[in-house]
Amino acid sequence: MNTNANFIDGTWIEPLADEQIDLIDPATEDTYGSIPDSTAEDVDRAFAAAERGFESWQKTTPGERQRALLRIADAIEARAEEFADAESRDTGKPRANLAEEEIMLSVDQIRFFAGAARNLQGLSAGEYLPQHTSMIRREPIGVVAQIAPWNFPLNMAVWKMAPAIAAGNSTVLKPAASTPSTAILLAEVAAEFLPAGVFNLVLGDRSTGRAMVQHPTPQLVSITGSTRAGMEVARDAADDLKRVHLELGGNAPVVVFNDADIQAAAKTIVMAGYVNAGQDCTAATRILAQDGVYNDLVAAVTNEARDSARTGTPNDPQATFGPVNNSNQLAHVSRLVDGLAPHAEITTGGKRWGNRGYFYEATVVAGVEQSDAIVQEEIFGPVVTIQRFSDEADAVKKANGVAYGLSSSVWTTDHGTAMRMSKALDFGCVWINTHIPVVAEMPHGGFKHSGYGKDLSMYGFEDYTRIKHVMSFTG
Hints:
It is globular, with a radius of gyration of 23 Å. The chain has a 7-stranded mixed sheet with strand order 14-15-16-13-12-18-19, with helices on both faces. 38% of the residues lie in helices and 21% in strands. It contains 15 helices and 22 strands. α4 runs parallel beside α5 and α9 (262-274) crosses α10 (294-308). It has 2 domains: 6-248 and 450-471, Aldehyde Dehydrogenase, Chain A, domain 1, CATH 3.40.605; 253-439, Aldehyde Dehydrogenase, Chain A, domain 2 (3-Layer(aba) Sandwich), CATH 3.40.309.10. It is α/β, with parallel strands linked by helices.
C-alpha cells in the first residue's frame, strides 16, 4: 500500500507537497506512518486527469459502467480481510467481524449502484405541444469533488464514488487525513477496472479539501462531515455556483412511548447508541422517554449498557466498540460529560477508559433537559442521554428542538401514534420500533443542519445526474 503518493490518471504519483501528516493509532496513540498534505498544485493535476477521464467515461454505456463496478465489488470481496485489517488499524475498530459486516456492506452497495446504472427512469417522450416531441435526457454532471470522513472510511468513500461513476462522472476523492488506508486500497482495485482519470485519489488535510472545493473544474462537491465543514464547503462552492451534496451531523431522537416494549427498546438503543463508539451521525444517543416508562427505561438501558457494551482494543474479542478517532474527539466527549448540569445523573460510565488510546466508557446520562449542551450538541461518542416527555406534542417539540434533522426512531405498539409521529418528526429517516438499519435501496440524508442531498438509493444516484429537455419539431 502506497501511503506517500496520490492516485492520479491511473497511476501513483509522488505529490509536490513537502508537508507530511502523521497517522496516529487511536488505540495506542502511536505514530505508525504518514501521508502527504497535498497542495493546490497536486489537486490541479488530479482534476486535469479527471477532466480527461470524463471525456471518454461519459460516452460509455450503462452496461459497461455496471460491469466495471461489479468487478470492483468482486475484487474488494476477495480482499475483504486486507481491507478490514487496514480499516481496523486506522480507526481502532474491533477486528473480529469487520470484514463480514462493514466491508461486505460496502461491497453490497457498490453492486446496488452497478445495477442502478442500467435502471434510470424518467418521463416518457411525448407531444406536449402540437408538432413537437419532447423527451428528457439524464446526463452525468461531469467532474465531481468528493470528501469522505473518518468514522466509516471505506463505506463513505463507496457511497460517493460508486454512484458518481455509475452515472458516468469522473471523480477526485479525498479521504480523511487520519483514515486513508482503505481509500488507498480502493484506488488499487479501481486501477484494474476503470480507465485512467475516472477515479482519482488525493491525500491531505483541510487545506487540500479546501483547494478541491475552490477549484474551477468540479461541477459538484460532495462531503460527509461536520456541520461546520459543510457550511464552509457551501460558502466556497457558492462563489462558483457549484452543486453541493452535504451529508452532515446528526442528533437522533429515540422516542419511547408508554406502550413500547421497553426491553426491546433498551437492547436496540445500546446496540445503536454505541456502534462505532457512537461515531455515527444516526446513532441512538438522544433518548426521549414518556413519563410512565422513564424510570424503567433508564434502568433497562443502564443495565444493558453495563452488560453488553464494552470498549477495548481492536484484537480484544470481547470488545463491542473501540476508541474514538482522535484526541480532539475524546476531548469533545469529555467536555460534554464533565460539564453536565447538576440535574443530570451519570448512571454508568462517564470517564475515559485506560490511560492509553482514545477510549471512553459506555456512558448513560439520565435526567437531562432540552437546553443542556449534551442534548443540543452532537456527541459523536459512546454516550446516551435520556430525558422525559409528557405527551405526543411534548415529544415532537423536544425531538425536533435541535439543529439537526438526519434520523430518528419511534417506539410504540400503537399504529396511529407511529404514523402521526413519522409525519411530525423533522428528520430524513424515521425508524419505527427499530433504529439504525441502512439498506442500499433506501435514501440516507437529512434536513436542517444535517445537510441536503441523498446518499444510497435511486435518489442518491440521481443526485449525480443532470436533467436536459430535448424538443424536436416534427412538422
